[in-house]
Automatic annotation (TrEMBL):
It is found in: Cell outer membrane. Residues 36-231 form the Outer membrane lipoprotein BamD-like domain. Pfam families: YfiO. Part of the Bam complex. This is Outer membrane protein assembly factor BamD. Part of the outer membrane protein assembly complex, which is involved in assembly and insertion of beta-barrel proteins into the outer membrane. It comes from the Bacteria. One of its GO terms (biological process) is protein insertion into membrane. GO terms for cellular component: cell outer membrane. Keywords: Cell outer membrane, Lipoprotein, Membrane, Palmitate, Signal. It is a lipid-anchor. The lineage of its organism: Bacteria, Pseudomonadati, Pseudomonadota, Alphaproteobacteria, Rhodobacterales.
Length: 280
């Protein structure tokens, strides 16, 4: 049947309205959350978190649960999920703030341990390359220690302990990098001070054997043979399987020196601790 001009105009208008209506219900547009229950908004947040590569929608939806239903059980659950989503999106400062807010509001809740761990993790995951400022590493250590001490029986304690040890090793690595830099530039006293920090304060890290070897190198260059031999003695006592032991052994014996403790330096005191079993 033919359509007149008026009918054609009406049909075009109807099609246009249909198109506009379809656009208006796009999932990209704001959802009328005020008409939904807290559980429904929370469920939408979970779906957004699972289905979208970026967690921005999930963060928005979880925050809306708390805004619209601030005193509900769902608000509490949404708050910890918001912190998780922010961490997933590498919004670390926001994740820390949200996790801390959960801890402040619900200190006795069973998820408080996870909130504390999430806060620590947001520092840990920001640790930069060894050569940069390590302020965040110190904060990660403090936050991980809080998890370990406050929630020792939680499922997060063992993970926090592992990350604590890795962050601790990271700090020792920074000291080693700076020490090696000074050593190459001929600033031997400055280098020794850095290696001493590793030996005294970071004994249980993976860098201790090299720190002792670098002390042997630096002390020999300065002609301080007692200190060099004592550093070699500690290295030989704890790290004979290390390649750094072989390097120090060659340096010392090549000068007619032994890997035995000599004198009464700070290294001699460390050596006596090793013999008494207080090193580890």
């Amino acid at each position: 049947m033919a359509v007149g001009k008026a009918g054609a105009g009406f049909l075009a208008a109807a099609l246009l309205m249909t198109t506009l209506t379809g656009c208006g219900t796009s999932t990209n547009d704001p959802v009328p959350l005020e008409t939904m229950t807290a559980e429904q908004i929370f469920a939408r947040g979970e779906r957004a978190l699972e289905s979208q590569p970026e967690p921005d929608d999930a963060i928005r939806l979880f925050s809306e649960v708390e805004r619209l239903y601030p005193y509900s059980e769902w608000a509490k659950r949404a708050l910890i999920m918001q912190a998780f989503s922010e961490h997933k999106g590498e919004k670390y400062e926001e994740a820390r703030a949200t996790a801390q807010r959960f801890i402040d509001l619900y200190p006795a809740d069973e998820d408080a341990a996870y909130a504390k761990y999430l806060l620590a993790l947001s520092y840990y995951d920001q640790i930069d390359e060894v050569g940069r400022d390590q302020g965040l590493t110190f904060q990660a250590l403090q936050a991980m220690r809080a998890v370990i001490e406050e929630y020792p029986d939680s499922e997060y304690a063992s993970s926090a302990m592992l990350k604590f040890e890795l962050a601790f090793d990271h700090l020792a690595g920074k000291e080693m990098e700076i020490g090696r830099y000074y050593l190459k530039r001929g600033q031997h006293t400055a280098a020794i001070n850095r290696f001493r920090v590793v030996v005294q304060d970071f004994q249980n890290t993976t860098h201790t054997a090299e720190a002792l070897h670098r002390l042997v190198e630096a002390y020999l260059i300065l002609g301080l043979t007692d200190e060099a031999q004592t550093a070699g003695a500690i290295l030989g006592h704890n790290y004979q399987s290390s390649p750094f032991y072989d390097d120090s052994h060659r340096l010392l014996t090549g000068r007619g020196l032994s890997m035995e403790a000599q004198g009464d330096s700070w290294l001699s005191r460390v050596y006596r601790q090793v013999i008494r079993g207080e090193w580890l």
